[in-house]
């Protein structure tokens, strides 16, 4: 099977399609919440709490992504050092 055929099969089967990121899910939840019209004060309070929680999730996600990026860079550097030593 040629490379073209393999790529085509993956495309057809949907294997190349990446899943939405956590940022996309958070953004979708925030947009959905902004369109909800609460009918009473209790609902307003619950929506405000959910929005605050989503904001905190977004902030922590950003920190985790930065940490993962840093660790990936560290790993890359260590692999390069190991390769140079061999």
Structural commentary:
This protein is mainly alpha-helical. The mean pLDDT is 87. 81% of the residues lie in helices and 0% in strands. The longest helix is centred in the C-terminal third of the chain and has 45 residues, at 41-85. The protein has one domain (21-85). The protein is flat and about 65 Å long. The chain is built from three helices and no strands. Helix 2 (22-35) runs antiparallel to helix 3. The relative contact order is 0.07.
Q: What is the secondary structure topology, with strand pairs?
A:
Layout: H1 3-13, H2 22-35, H3 41-85
Helix pairs in contact: 2-3
How do you describe this structure in short?
With 86 residues, this protein is mostly helical.
- The SSE order reads HHH
Rg, nearest Å: 22 Å
Low-confidence segments: none
Overall pLDDT level: 87
| Total number of domains | 1
Computed structural class: mainly alpha
- Main pleated sheet: none
Strand composition percent? under 5%
Tally of DSSP β-strands: 0
Distance between the termini: 36 Å
Shape: flat
Q: Helical region count?
A: 3
Query: What is the percent of helical residues?
Result: over 70%
């Amino acid at each position: 099977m040629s490379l073209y055929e393999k790529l085509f099969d993956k495309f057809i089967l949907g294997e190349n399609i990446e899943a939405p990121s956590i940022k996309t899910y958070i953004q979708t939840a925030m947009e959905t919440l902004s369109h909800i019209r609460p009918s009473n004060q209790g609902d307003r309070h619950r929506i405000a709490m959910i929005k605050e929680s989503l904001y905190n999730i977004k902030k922590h996600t950003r920190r985790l992504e930065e940490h993962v990026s840093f660790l990936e860079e560290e790993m890359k550097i260590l692999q390069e050092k190991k390769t140079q030593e061999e």
